[in-house]
Amino acid sequence: MFQEIKKAQKYRKRFIESVKKFGTPQYVLVVDELKERINIINQIKKYYPNIDIYYTYKANCRPFICKLLHESDIHASVSSIFELKLALKLKAKKIIYNGPGKTREELNLAILNSDKVIINVDSFEELKEIIKISKIKNKKVSIGLRVCIKTNHDVKSNYDVKWSRFGIRREEISYILSIIKKEKNISFEGFHFHIGIKNRSPSLYKKSLKEIGKIIRALNDEEKKKIKFINIGGGFGVEGYFPRSNRNGFVAEMINKFYAFKYNYPMYKTVPIEIFIKAVIDSFKKDILSIKNIDNPKMILEPGRWFVSPCVHLLTKVIYKKGEHYAILDSSITMCSALLYEYHPISNLSNISYEMKKCNLLGSSLFHIDILGKNYYGNRLKINDILCITSMGAYMENVSWQFCKPLPKIIALSNGTMKKIKKEEDFNYRFGRDIF
Ligand SMILES: Cc1ncc(COP(=O)(O)O)c(C=O)c1O
To answer: 55 alpha carbon to ligand 1 midpoint, in Å?
Structure first.
């Protein structure tokens, strides 16, 4: 966790300047950190050059971020009509369309742009819809099949119920491929899986590649040759937080609480991405490339969280205090709802130290659960102190709720410059869709 405090300390001066210029609350994107991550992930191509990386927009779909990634040869992975329109507007060279509930409108747009869009088909019914539209529009469509992989998931657990609704079951694949074969507009190009989020080691990906290898080995040579890619999805773990609760229920939650209490919120550790992906590539070579009559498929990655989580931070101000144990902030849990289940360290930028102090840091909505944290690092809090909550770039700002206070602005810091990349929410944004 000290790494997070160090990070806040490293950027302290620039963050305070940004607050002086733009006010609080603000999300602040450190562009250099994002660029560094782009460089790091692009390095993995030395282990297997035939890799394409797609950024998953839903992690943080700010156009500024997506554009920067596209400029570095990272493509777009989208899952809604807005994201698809955005990727087209940003002139992403390649787009993947994912999701279990693609509507006709979404499929229409994806198929109209089929020169750059690959659709990862999630079900047989969806495939039928794609076939219909491709005929009406007379368009050739490239598709992948999302496979529902059962590697880790205990069938009885809730976790499995959450994930098993995605993708096509193994036993359906040969029938679906036989249907596709008869359709001249549909080009089957590969398999896709996405096996959850915040994975801290490559083991699940390795198991999944083994499963995909088995599926491919069962295909005939003609089908094997068609495979242009294996898409291993996203879900790569990232540091900078501690989970408040755990998917595996009560006991794990208690263990988490114990760790948080005894060891002062140790940040989650993950295998560094280069080692992580290298291990996945080794499995890819062993379980996929070794298959006879397969034609050197691409490996596709779709990271979201990994790119953006560590690069964006929330800056907020103390506006009132009620004694020593309650401070009211000008931000709100509605702007960063993941704090309900993740602990992100909070630093007092106005008076920084490595010492943890207890204080309930309360949001300013009238929501009883509006608590952003129960402690901070720094010296005694005063009114007008600036707090920094670090590593808030993924699934935070873009899943914020419209409730009470305006949603914050976003500032990009780059090479000594500061630029607003999203305005604070205003009256029109909140009420513009209402019919008065
Ligand atoms: C199909 C698919 N690919 C990629 C991702 C990105 O996951 P993450 O942001 O955890 O890397 C997701 C997110 O859930 C997803 O559903």
So the answer is: 9
pLDDT band at 44, cuts 50/70/90?
very high
**How many Å apart are CA 272 and CA 280, to the nearest integer?**
12
Q: Which of 37, 55, 58 to mutate to test the pocket of ligand 1 (most atoms within 8 A of CB)?
A: 58
The residue that leads in pLDDT, 50 or 259, is 50
The count of other CB atoms within 10 Å of the CB of residue 76 is 28
> Using a 6 Å cutoff on CB, does residue 393 contact ligand 1?
no
CB of 310 closer than 6 angstroms to any ligand 1 atom: no
Please state the separation of Cα 69 from the chain's center in Å. 14
| 202-217: average pLDDT | 95
Please tell me the distance between residue 100's alpha carbon and the centre of ligand 1 in angstroms. Answer: 13
Q: Which range has the worst mean pLDDT, 93-97, 121-125, 195-199, 257-261?
A: 257-261
What DSSP assignment string belongs to 96-160? EE--S---HHHHHHHHHTTTTEEEEE--HHHHHHHHHHHHHTT--EEEEEEB---SS--TTSHHH
What are the structural domains of the chain? 32-307 (3.20.20.10), 309-429 (2.40.37.10)
Chain CA centroid to CA 52, Å: 17
Give the confidence band of 157 by pLDDT, cuts at 50, 70, 90. Answer: very low
Closest ligand 1 atom, CA of 196? 14
